[in-house]
Amino acid sequence: MSFFKQNITLFGADIPWLEGLREKARAAFERCGLPNAKTEAWKYSYFKEEELGAPQIDDTPHECDGHCGESENLPFAAIEIKYCNGKLTHIARDLPRGVIIRPLYEAITDGEIKPYLNKSFDLNEFPFAALNTAFLDEGLLIIITADTMANMPIYLHYHQHAGMNRLCNIRNVIVCEKGAKATIIEHFDGESNAQYFNNIVNEIYVGTGAILRHYKRQDEASKAHHTALNSVQVKAGGHYNSLIVHGECALARSESYVRLLQENAGAEINGAYRLTHNGVSDITTNIRHLAQHTASDQLVKGVLDGAAKGVFQGQIHIAPDAQQTTGYQLHRALVLSDAAEVDCKPELEIFADDVKCSHGAASGDLDAEQLFYMQARGIPLDEARQILIEAYLNEVFAKTEDSAVAGWLSENICPSR
Question: N or C terminus of the chain: which is more exposed, having fewer CB within 10 Å?
Answer without folding.
Answer: C
